[in-house]
Amino acid sequence: MLDSVLTKDHERIDIYFNEFLLSLSSKPDMNKLDLIVSSLRNHMFWEEEYLFPEIFEENKLRIQGLEAEHGAILKLLDEVKRLISINEIEDAKKKTQGVIRVLKGHNEAEEGYIYLELDKLESQKQADLLLKEVEHASAPKDWICKVLRTGSLK
Fold this sequence. Notes:
The chain is mainly alpha-helical. The protein has helices at 2-23, 30-55, 60-85, 89-118, 123-136, 146-150. 80% of the residues lie in helices and 0% in strands. The mean pLDDT is 94.
């Protein structure tokens, strides 16, 4: 169960990266870059604070390596932002392509081993860990529930 959810999240973030990379050929979509960063931070938070500790002892070195990559990925994205801010778009494009390559290998390591280990946890434990993610999720700032949005509650 966790493997499927986490892999789908990787796929979602990959789509954002491809859209952002495409925007670097015309006008950099900084909102998309912010979405990438916030999505990655949320994903990494869930992994590091809740998921990885469940299987850490048996996978210590592998997890420590993945956590180091988390830091490197976020630093690289800071550099992409900096390059865009000084109008070095071609360098920002190359750096983004580099981040995508790093992330591809990183995701393969997680999906090919760590997530499979998480799927071995009892289903109730996996459900509890999914709930941890839901607890930290937040609706967009401008979201309004359907009834209030349509004015059907009078």
